[in-house]
Amino acid sequence: MSILTSIENILPIIFIIALGFYLNEKGWFGPDFGGNVSKLVMNIALPASIFVSVLKYLTLDKLIAVAPGLVYTFGSVILAYIAAFIVVKLFKVRPGRRGTMINIFANTIFIGLPLNIALFGDASISYFLVYYITNTVSTWAFGALLIAQDSKDATRKSSTGFNWRKLLPAPLVGFLISLVFLLLNIPVPAFATNTLTYVGNIVTPMSLIYIGIVLSKAGLSSINFDRDTILALLGRYILSPVVMFLLLTLWGSHLPAIEYKTFMVQAAVPGLAVLPILANEGNGDVEYATNVVTTSTLLFVIVIPILVTLLG
Fold it and tell me: Mind telling me which residue stretches traverse the membrane in this protein (predicted)?
């Protein structure tokens, strides 16, 4: 069952990446299309998606009820960040890849919700949202900033300096605004919700098409398991689940079984589909970010059935 579930969740992702690859090979996209997609997703679609998701799945009462779980999710992300910083320094990962590798260790939010529902049912949604909140805050308040400051061009980085506007990227602003609406119980008109939902729904498909475009430009031979990719995958699929397991074993034995399993599964899902877009925005190594997302997605088919089997 878990093998079929993981394959069913992965196949649409692979097909959409392949679609982006094929259309770019056929010359459907102009040279500026990828950059325009990057801006659209980052500045419009992602904030809309985050705003709608928070108000759709969370209420103030539910937020209070699931808040204790944030201790484990934030704890695991913080420890993963620390481990990633150590790995980056120890292995002298080159500029342009550092921010991506650190984010791969710590953040996911990719195919988490449909996977969780398929494995554990609707009862797991509340616990998934604990992970969603953690990843949204950590990614856009800290992770995206790391990538934005990790230019592969040292000259460009030193000449432009620090961009203070990147402290508040559009997705983080969308999350903060959604919290205001949630906490103050401000009603959102149906037409506004529908509009933002339609716009937000393009995030994943456009991000995957962008990955296909990058793969087309770099060539399929760019998919490889070099040292930095292997380090990122070990962080994603070994370190992150182990850290979560230790936290839950030491302090989370009282948690409901579904919450425990949700946290473990979400600690071992592929990297963010928008990582290549973030790398592009920050003048990072887009090919590396694409390779990491692609390889982590392919390996997910093997990893998740093993993890679910171990969880019983």
Answer: 6-24, 64-88, 100-119, 125-147, 167-186, 198-218, 230-251, 292-311
Report the C-alpha gap between 38 and 23 in whole angstroms: 17
CA 197 remoteness from chain centre: 19
Contact 151, 282 (CB under 8 A): yes
* CATH number, domain containing residue 299: 1.20.1530.20
pTM, to two decimals:
0.80
Number of domains in the chain: 1
Range(s) of the domain holding residue 234: 3-311
Q: How far apart are CA 57 and CA 66, in angstroms?
A: 12
**Cβ neighbourhood burial of 62 (10 Å; 0-12, 13-18, 19+):** middle
pLDDT digits (tens, 9 = 90+) for 127-186: 888 888 888 788 888 888 888 888 877 555 544 454 545 556 788 888 889 989 988 889
Distance (Å, rounded) from C-alpha 84 to C-alpha 77?
Answer: 10
Q: How far apart are CA 46 and CA 40, in angstroms?
A: 8
The one-letter amino acid at 209: I
Please give the Cα distance from 255 to 94 (Å, whole number): 41
The number of CA neighbours under 13 Å toward the Cβ of 66 is: 24
Contact 141, 18 (CB under 8 A): no
